Amino acid sequence: MTKPASFKYFKTSPEIIRLAVMLYIRFPLSLRNVEDLLHERGIDVSHETVRYWWNRFGPMFAAEIRRKRVQHLRAFSKWKWHVDEVFVKVNGKRHYLWRAVDHDGEVLEAVVTKRRNKQAALKFLRKLMKRHGCAEEIVTDRFASYRAALRELGATEKQQTGRWLNNRVENSHLPFRRRERAMQRFRRMRSLQKFASVHSSVYNHFNQERSLTSRETFKLTRTVALAEWRGLCAE
Fold first, then answer.
1. Position 145 in a domain
2. Would the N or C end of the chain have less CB density within 10 A of its end CB?
3. Are strands 159-161 and 93-102 parallel, antiparallel or unpaired?
């Protein structure tokens, strides 16, 4: 099966499209902020064009990142998972964003639901395990829906709870919260799910655990990540 020409029929170069999408997803910028930054670099596009690029190419970039990382994740992400959920407003109504990260802070899955009950937890955990297998340890808070869902999956003995044990996933919510404020909330559940999935993949790609490595190592991994981004969906 041949790979489709992703940028076919677009007059703008793929490098500019990748730059615009990266700025919008990776940093807490609005569409008009991205428009102004591109204009400062001599690139004249409207914020609606940036919106179209993000909607068209964001999921494609995220899918390619996941495809390249899936083998690595399957091999190294089964030791410990940290699972948590946060409240997100969608058109003024409360929804729930469930997220799971591994012991290195890699975001494994992000799922949006309307309710915060056993069925929602079960849906999230099944999707997580279908893609990544089952971890040796699953760290959660003391919310009863997790225990009920894990009991049905036959993984109750893997659950761990504790006051400070889930700090890793709690901290992983912060980049998304910054983006949420810049976007002035979400209007549809589908758009929230789409952005959460794409944002997770881009965050994983550029997350270098800066505080745990030397400056030289960080500079090298950052350069490699940027070079890989510039090659996404290349013909």
1. yes
2. N
3. unpaired
Pairing of strands 80-90, 137-140: parallel
The verdict on residue 200 lying in a domain is yes
H or E element in which residue 89 lies: strand 80-90
| Domain carrying residue 177 | 78-206
Partnered with residue 81 across adjacent β-strands are 102, 138
d(CA 150, CA 63): 28
Query: The domain spanning residue 133 has which CATH number?
Result: 3.30.420.10
Q: How many domains does the chain have?
A: 1
Render 145-161 in DSSP notation, one character per residue.
HHHHHHHHHT-GGGEEE
Q: Give domain status of residue 42, yes or no.
A: no
Q: Residues 178-226: pLDDT tens digits?
A: 888 888 778 889 999 999 999 999 998 998 777 777 888 889 989 999 9
Kindly report the pTM of this predicted structure. 0.85
